[in-house]
Design goal:
9 helices; homodimer; alpha+beta; globular; 205 residues; 16% strand
């Protein structure tokens, strides 16, 4: 029997058309983000933030700075998934619960902070790459969680990042990496599109 | 009953310690990449490449430029997951199979290329962000596929990107976004570490 995860990977498709008459609850939104934050992040940095754009007013404001895409107002919620510029000084606080739980030896924290510092400190493009990686890992996990809950998802990069940051008061270290609409899709959505042949994308060494 | 995808998200943990005596086959590696490429990419760009580092020689060369991390030689395979700088001119070729399959109307391709061009053309940081997003979506999907196949996975950013590019002959538009070791984990691996409280990472507007 095919594992349900494999089936989900094979069947998932991007949802563009949502049924505006079917809504999801705040509890479901919270559960989706709870699951999204189970994704891995480098050094367990968890340098992300999820803004659930939920009200009619906020949806209209987001749509106005995102290529007027209808799925923002027709889906139940659109997440602004932010990555935060990686900062090794956040690590002691982020790792403290793992130390308290007896998972991570306390004396390892300094080494992790030093390792992260060697990657990020005063290297803005590495800090930014990490923000994009972290937010995307969160988005991917949220997409699978939504699929498991019978919901469709539509990721978007067609938006004005400066305007999104201004309208939704992002902090100066936050990057809007992706928008992600979630809700009930209609049957008219396209199936998954064909992929490049593996010979073009996989090599063994 | 909890959906197996939800269970996987809750249970997944990063594997650092691999059993070097247990190997996986080239067929399994191919299947993992087949599934990884089912991940979504912006405009279906599929701007990624997966290098399966598999032989003892190649593993040693990679370990030497990746902080001497043991999991590179002890796991069955370590993927160098590359993102390619986003280039809208690749779209007609990437979308052709969707047109041929009758999924996408042929007259839409020009519009997608124009939309992608407005985002990427002569905007290097956006091209790079897209390379990181695409590779990370592929990595996340590969991690879930591995989990479904009973395999552990360990993503890594601790490596010298220039040296990796040189040793493994990456093209000038390719970025090594992540290394990802796959194999059978040992029982000593840590469980998933606790996450930040949702109140710190989720807001509703």
């Amino acid at each position: 029997m095919t594992h349900p995860i494999i089936t989900a990977i094979e069947e998932r498709r991007t949802t563009v058309l949502f049924d505006p008459s079917r809504d999801i609850s705040d509890e479901q939104i919270t559960e989706l983000v709870h699951l999204a934050t189970k994704a891995p992040t480098s050094f367990n940095l968890q340098n992300w933030r999820f803004i659930a754009v939920r009200t009619s007013d906020a949806k209209a404001r987001l749509r106005a700075v995102a290529w007027d895409q209808a799925k923002i107002t027709e889906s139940s919620v659109t997440f602004i998934i932010c990555g935060q510029m990686a900062d090794e000084h956040t690590l002691p606080e982020r790792l403290a619960p793992a130390v308290e739980a007896g998972i991570m030896p306390a004396q390892m924290v300094d080494g992790w902070e030093a390792g992260a510092g060697s990657l990020y400190n005063e290297q803005a493009w590495r800090q930014r790459d990490e923000a994009v990686r972290t937010a995307t890992f969160g988005a991917a996990t949220l997409i699978f969680a939504a699929h498991a809950m019978g919901l469709g998802s539509g990721p978007m990069i067609g938006f004005d990042p400066e305007a999104v940051a201004r309208e939704f008061t992002l902090a100066s270290d936050e990057i809007p990496v992706m928008l992600l609409s979630i809700g009930y899709g209609t049957p008219e959505n396209w199936p998954q599109k064909p992929r490049r042949p593996l010979s073009q994308v996989l090599s063994f060494v």
